[in-house]
């Protein structure tokens, strides 16, 4: 893992990982530390009432977002990972256990049920119990992780892979220290 003193050269940061790994929280923390604008992909993907955009519309949206000069972008969306990896200079991948991710999704779902996630989701997309999504979280490591890791290992920019939440916490602490010195 590279040292976090790369903050000065971070311009386009992609944060990926299983649902529930804390991508949005990590993006907000990194945005606070670096001053880079945060783009929560869920807020651009979902339309009111949890409607999905067409594949063409979604790719066009991603093209517009990655064309911006500076950003921190959180979200998976495998169908556009190639575009985002080509545009990013830094990748943070949260490779946390299924138990960690599932517990976080359950907590978020039950504590936020019927509420909106301001800035993370558009209006009309209230937190809800979504059993197919929860199954996706439970199966992510078996069905999607290897594909994501293959794409990530081909990434030519700075790459940070964290397998435990405390590693990410230490990274942010080191980053904060390097920025303030």
What is the secondary structure topology, with strand pairs?
Layout: E1 12-17, H1 23-34, E2 38-40, H2 41-45, H3 55-66, E3 71-74, H4 81-87, E4 90-94, H5 98-112, H6 131-143, H7 145-153, E5 158-162, H8 165-180
Parallel strand pairs: 1-3, 1-4, 2-3, 4-5
Helix pairs in contact: 1-8, 5-6
Number of strands: 5
Q: Give the averaged pLDDT, no decimals.
A: 91
> What is the CATH H-level superfamily?
P-loop containing nucleotide triphosphate hydrolases
Distance between the termini: 21 Å
Strand order of the largest sheet: 2-3-1-4-5
Examine the secondary-structure arrangement and name the CATH architecture. 3-Layer(aba) Sandwich
CATH classification, class level: Alpha Beta
Protein name: Adenylate kinase
GO molecular function: kinase activity
Keywords: Kinase, Transferase
Description of the molecule:
- This protein is of the alpha/beta class and 181 residues long.
- The protein has a single domain (4-180), classed as Rossmann fold, CATH 3.40.50.
- It has 8 helices and 5 strands.
- The chain has helices at residues 23-34, 41-45, 55-66, 81-87, 98-112, 131-143, 145-153, 165-180; strands at 12-17, 38-40, 71-74, 90-94, 158-162.
């Amino acid at each position: 893992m590279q040292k976090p003193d790369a903050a000065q050269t971070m311009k386009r940061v992609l944060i990926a990982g299983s649902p529930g790994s804390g991508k949005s929280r990590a993006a907000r923390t990194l945005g606070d530390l670096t001053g880079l604008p945060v783009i929560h992909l869920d807020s651009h993907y979902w339309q009111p009432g949890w409607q999905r955009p067409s594949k063409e519309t979604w790719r066009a949206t991603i093209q517009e977002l990655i064309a911006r000069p500076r950003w921190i972008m959180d979200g998976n969306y495998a169908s556009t990972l190639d575009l985002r990896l080509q545009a990013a200079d830094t990748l943070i991948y949260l490779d946390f256990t299924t138990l960690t991710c599932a517990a976080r999704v359950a907590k978020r779902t039950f504590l936020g049920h019927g509420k909106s996630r301001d800035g993370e989701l558009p209006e009309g997309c209230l937190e809800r119990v979504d059993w197919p999504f929860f199954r996706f979280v439970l199966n992510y490591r078996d069905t999607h992780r290897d594909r994501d890791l293959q794409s990530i290992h081909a990434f030519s920019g700075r790459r940070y892979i964290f397998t435990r939440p405390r590693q990410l916490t230490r990274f942010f602490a080191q980053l904060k220290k390097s920025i303030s010195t």
